[in-house]
Amino acid sequence: MIAPGTGRPVGARQAGLAHRFRRHRLAAASARVLAILVLCALAAPLIEQVLGVDGTAVDLLARLAGPSWSHPLGTDELGRDILVRLLYGGRVSLLVGVVAALAAAGIGTAVGLAAGWYGGRLDALLMRLTDGFIALPLLPLLIVLAAVDTGKLGLPAALGHSELASLYRIIAIVALAGWTTVARLVRGATLAARQRDYVRAAVALGAGSLRVMAVHILPNVASPVVVATTLSVGNIILLESVLSFLGLGIQPPLPSWGNMLTGAQDLIWSAPLLAIYPGLLIFLTVIAFNLLGDGLQDALDPRTADA
User: Is residue 138 one of the residues assigned to a domain?
Assistant: First the structure.
């Protein structure tokens, strides 16, 4: 099977992408680091069971205890196991980063495809809307949106007061505010792709606009979308951490790396490890996603294709 617009078999093209990605050693190492983080986060209940602890149980008699067999990283200010909370917090932070990035990429891809394919007034309207979102200061906008009372928006009270409400809200807010980069990238790639011979041939054969965009254009503009989405995950994790640190993000008792930093700020001098552990994990995850995005960008760049 020939990949549209490349003239190369799909299998050979995928093998070439994998080979170029593996040559980017930092990106390959970052992918392995992220895989380890994800596996550890998924294994949180198993590790909790092996250690024989409850990550949510408060034990004031064991607060700020040092490392031990039952608490490998010690306990926090409420006597909860730090390792287990870090793993569960990784679940939340990684989930927010990945899901919000995918949702933002979906919105941006739809906007960019429509603007690039239809052009004219629709293009002008969508791009001015995109420019308006870009002009807004992101962090203050997120702080304002995160502080909105969901009860006044007409949402069900059960949803607004559930334990996962803050998680859903952060994902929705970041997705609605972070689609602009992907939209501009997809619009530019669509404007270039619509002039290609295979797109003109599909139109000449009677293919509808939706089919042309979904079958012929979208696969060939996927590269910048993948790169932009990967790079945005690290930024979203940072934004979630900032909002949680300010008390507007993930709310306790649900742990995240950001609200673990919030709980540690008053103990930074007496128990600095409470802030160092989640801070290091945030730093490592963001750097790994950025390096992974750089590697994907190099691998998907047609100028680096093997001869």
Answer: yes
